[in-house]
Amino acid sequence: MKKFLRTILLIIIFLMAAGFAVNAFFLGNVTSDLKGNLSKYGISDEAASFAKQHKIVNVAVFGVDGRDDVDGDRTDTIMVATADYEHSKVKVASLMRDTYIYIDKKYGYDKLNAAYAYGGADLALQTINQNFDTTITDYVTIDFSAMVSMVNAVGGVTIDIETAEELDWVNEYLVDVNEKVATGSPFLEETGSQIVDGSQALAYCRVRYVGDGDFDRTLRQRVVFEQVLSKALDLNLQEQYNLVMATLPYVETSLSTLEIIKYGANLALMPSKDIEQSRFPTDELISLDMLDGVSYVIPNTLVKNIEALYQFIYETTYTPSDTATDISDEIKNAVNGSSYYNDSSDENSKY
């Protein structure tokens, strides 16, 4: 009996030690990138100091229109995907692509989605970090065709087409998707909830002329993205491998193979596969305005949206950095009639 109890005790000690080792391996360096040169990522000291206190990983997800007949890479989709190991949650935050933000001295103030077109993922990351005071050092860029493969690999997704007008637009976009991605998906024939394939899902995500335009468009994208991610977490290892292989040709990422395995393993171990969603700027902190004849989504104010974003991601309060606060003030001044901030060549700009 003593040997039996001693054996059980050794097993318990071994399992506890293994658990601590696994935790250290998987989570010990989730903020390791915040110890180097923060300026190349556009990360403030305040945000870095805050992030180091938490076991939360944020990765930027860019959906670009990489078709051969489209000039440049436009980020039709901009999201922040969060693995929250503190609260055992997965979260997805959409960033409105038309949000009026500061890019850099060369480009000044512009729409958020312009940053990727000007300088690729690196400039897009810097722009998100300095405007939303985030600490994102990694990204995943997915081109036009990837969603088709992703949705098909998980067996389709469920969408809810609410009106006949929305149905018409989905089928209108489906013609273009079938042509560009070389698929032959049939038209959807009715409104309501239904399971769709990859091409149909992509057409659904591209609709922007129904309801609240780009606001509803980001919601459609989150609905599809959430289902793909949720279903992927439920796949067995072989099916997950097939999903990765199906999408790999269409994906560019700064994540290493070890990091993907590390974060993926921890996501798979989370007790809940539910995914929380949000959008920023939020409905309560947003306005639409024309600046120099161009329509923008205006954060009202940027500081308040940063506070709301941190509440969503970290579930606690955060005081925005001086840099983010200054950008917020300049955006407010621009909307109130100042044209100074649209002149990126102004030598007096503090950025």
Written description of the protein model:
The protein is 45% helix and 20% strand. The protein has 11 helices and 12 strands. The chain has helices at 2-27, 45-51, 114-132, 146-153, 164-181, 198-206, 214-234, 237-247, 257-269, 302-314, 322-335; strands at 56-64, 75-84, 89-95, 100-104, 108-111, 139-142, 157-161, 192-196, 251-253, 275-280, 286-291, 294-299. The strands form 4 sheets. Strands 9-6-1-2-3-10 form a 6-stranded mixed β-sheet, with helices on both faces. A two-stranded antiparallel sheet has the order 4-5. It has a two-stranded antiparallel sheet with strand order 7-8. β11 (286-291) and β12 (294-299) form a beta hairpin. Mean pLDDT is 81; it is low at 13-29, 68-72 and 338-351.
Which residues form runs of ≥5 with pLDDT under 50? 13-29, 68-72, 338-351
Side-by-side strand order of the widest sheet: 9-6-1-2-3-10
Helix content: 40-55%
Series of H and E elements:
HHEEEEEHEHEHEHHHEHEEEHH
Determine the oligomeric state from the structure: single chain
Fold blueprint:
Elements: H1 2-27, H2 45-51, E1 56-64, E2 75-84, E3 89-95, E4 100-104, E5 108-111, H3 114-132, E6 139-142, H4 146-153, E7 157-161, H5 164-181, E8 192-196, H6 198-206, H7 214-234, H8 237-247, E9 251-253, H9 257-269, E10 275-280, E11 286-291, E12 294-299, H10 302-314, H11 322-335
Parallel strand pairs: 1-6, 3-10
Antiparallel strand pairs: 1-2, 2-3, 4-5, 6-9, 7-8, 11-12
Outline of the structure:
With 351 residues, the chain is α+β, with helices and mostly antiparallel strands. It contains 11 helices and 12 strands.
